[in-house]
Input
Amino acid sequence: MRVTRRQFLKVTGATAASLAVVDLGFDMTATASAIKGVRTRNVTPTPTVCPYCASGCGLMVYSERDAAGRFVKLLSVQGDPDNPINQGGACSKGAAMFNLREIYEEGTGKQVINPKRVQKPMYRAPGSDKWEEKDWDWMLDKIADRIKETRDSSFIHKEKIADGSEIIVNRTEKIASLGGSGLDNEEAYVLSKMMRSLGVVYLETQARI
Amino acid sequence: MTNHIVDLKNTDCALIMGSNAAENHPISMRWLLKARDTRGAKIIHVDPRYTRTSARADLYTPLRSGTDIAFLGGMIKYIIDNELYHRDYVVNYTNASYLIKDEFDFHDGLFSGWDKENKKYDVSSWDYQADANGLPLTDPSLQNPRCVFQLMKKHYERYDIDTVCKITGTPKNKYLEVLKTFCATGAPDKTGTILYAMGITQHTVGAQNIRAFAIVQLLLGNMGRPGGGINALRGENNVQGATDMALLFHIIPGYVDSPMNTADNKDLISFIRKVTPGAAKLPFTNLAEFRELVKAGFPNSGWKIHTSKWVVSMLKAWYGKAATPGNDFAYHYLPKRDEKKNYSHIAMFEAMHRGEIEGLFVNGSNPVVGGPNSNKEQEALTKLKWMVSIDLWANETAEFWTHQAWDRPVKNPDVPRMTPAEIGTEVFFLPAAAVYEKEGTAAQTGRWVQYRWKGAEPVGDSKSDLWIYNELVKKIKQKYGASKRKEDEPIVNMTWDYDDEHGHDDIMKVALELCGYNVADGKPVEGFAKLADDGSTACGCWVYCGAMTFKDGKNIYKPQLRKKDDPSGLGIHPEWGWAWPMNRRIVYNRCSVQPDGVTPWPGDAKRQLVKWDPLALADPKNPTSLGSWVGVDVPDFIKTTGPDKAAFTSPFIMRPEGKGCLFAAKNSLKDGPFPEHYEPWESPTVNIMNKQNLNPAVKVWEPDKQGTRDKYPIIGTTYRVVEHWQTGALTRNLPWLAELMPDMMVELSEELAKEKGIKNGHNVVISTSRGDVKAVACVTKRFKPFNINGQYIHQIGLLWQFGFKGYATGDPANRLTPHIGDANAMCPEYKAWLCDIRRA
Ligand code: SF4
Output
């Protein structure tokens, strides 16, 4: 099913202007029946959870798969009717999740990857005014070097404390880490473990602000 | 949230303060409307601005930004004066009856123990009177003048309705109506919920605002019951989970204080002594002795008596074989922060601005738009040697070095302008996969942990964050090789085994470590009560223990459960996902039944969640031990605590006293055991409640940047709209949403617009001592000038979701906001500051 920009604006824009936004008036059941129409073959619904506000609305990602089950293309993202939190509804943000990956090109209406998504690792040299594309291995290798240089040159292993004794403190105050509230739990967990094992104490996430 | 989103349908009355729920958490509003439709619930909205939430409320009243404690202090007084509190609940489940030390006092806006020189409190007088065994003395009649109830009554005597309304600017009749409506939930058969968001937390008194909620809800008997609770509507989809994993400097996973460079943190035993309530003076020198003490139980400890098991299991998960009983389970590997330093967001950027930080990781974050005083934060980034940004888009922070990033609407000599050539920061941008291009779990605002399956492939070369961290750590480990340096041990010995047999990161391996496994056989630990501090269990974050279970020969990750049944009809859905802790959907649920453990609150049998069943088997393997807590929700209580134990009526098991705290004893908070009204740092008026203008325990980072009323007479605040999310990176890059809400705007009253000659749609400039932004004026009736103690004062509101990248662009409102934060949580005061506005 192709939701054009106009159609989207009509549905969610209208709800935003009226009271219906609080009723989650972008009633996904209407579009769900439309989805059935395109469910001719190999349409896979996959449950996910909205990445925006923390209400935790369930969403269904409908994609086309080939015979081997491999992802071919995104069809739409809809409220998950089974999820007890939202029972199929979604606000304008949840309803726009398709755009997180793909958009319909202005003019041609062609379905393309959202051009704002960055598809390659990029590097900006000191003083430069542009990005350069790099491969993953180069990037991760350089980052690991920077971490090691900074950590090793600033690491405080032991420290004399108020009572005159010495204790092991294993920290660096020259590396900081910010963010992570958009990560999955498993990712946030390994980030926390990695940073602490590096000795990072400037460790903060959006919960603070 | 102490409760959860679906539970809102069970309420009799909702007080929404500092949140525009209808706009920013639309689904929560749906459940409130259901409560109204099905049980006649009332919805109250208190906010400086009339919003979409107000439009759906039964009752709306304005208050000036930053005066919530005055508003709620008046409510506390009203409840006490009119005896509207739920007496049985208050006497049995709160510390109302506890006697407080004679030295505790309050004068001129200062609590006892104020240390003027060091600008902090000595909290030793904020404590209970104790008997010879160290147990608090109480007076259940609540008459003793030193009991918490009487002290509280005295403290809030000053918060009479007239004084409150002079401070808040709330019309008196409306205020009275709010008091009457919400305080009616003190009746034993009624419950009321409080919903809040950043309008409450982003103040120099943010934590005390929430404390005031706690006092109100405890007095009305609304905690631990369906339709009740204090419910934070959190902003980021997994900010709860990121907090659980301790991506915060002051804790390690599972809400244990992070270690510091002090004698009482020097080794594992000292640390356990320090972080376990009630352990300070106990005789033990090693874990074996401590274990015996824990087994016997000791007073003033609560559930945190088990902290050693959580800490040792975490160390075991992180350092595996290198964590042994002989080396303190590698406790010394953990970084010890400097006790004298603060490492929170504002402090981090202050240090960065001074050139003290070399490298920064930005993990899906955007401080150039979202950080307070973002002109300064952007300048701080130029002083880094290197920065790594991991995101879907090259957002404003990733591109802080571009020409565009330094465009400003006004030439202001106080605001930095730079060119790329002047900026030496090396920037690495790593493209991340979007939420449905990978898999994993997220904890929503009601602590429900739900699985998100992968529905599409990552675009181009983008990768899941798990892949990125996994590969990066493998590289780092390679670089350190088999280094024998002591300081490299935490890296060399850190367990890092997340690859499957094909060398791909395996989320289930991470999940198992996070939720905990038995070291001997690798099987999941079935709940945190089974964690040990002898190295036999490993668990990354104890509050998630129990989310992984072993059944029919395989591991089941409970967040993947998708059974939507709701046997109780209360919206508990016990087999939909999993909620921490232990799948408990409403915490403190012991409070949903009378002190006898059996009888529901009069007239409220339907909302009873748990009960004591003297005939139930506590342990199916031991048929001789009878008596257990049972119910439609997982009891938030030690199952076997029967009426013979004193703790039988202590529902708040994470507190050492087991009671809900009307008085926050000892070091619970830095700025006082009772919330007290102080003005925001930048305030248009003086404090008429006491002699301190600003919360005295707050750190002032930039005294020279304090805007004053003569130059900046208008109160400024910030907020969001439904179409955009946080800094807008995830919405202004989406054409559909960008078109729905394309412009940076400022909302102002018709009265102010007239004074300033501004018309709807005009371009205007808003300025503070920290910078200027341009916006489109939206002249509305939704803001009204306030009458503050006889003065006529305006407030305006700006969207904070714009920046120079994406399909919809505009100036970040945070170029205006101050670098000052709450005394406890250091949450920036985004919501109340002084500014001026003029036509562009
Ligand atoms: S769909 Fe809307 S209400 Fe639901 S989680 Fe997403 S942003 Fe929040």
Summary: The helical segments of chain A are 5-17, 28-38, 92-95, 136-154, 185-198. The pocket of iron/sulfur cluster is lined by residues A 50, 52-53, 55-57, 86, 90-91, 93-94; B 25-27 (CB under 6 Å).
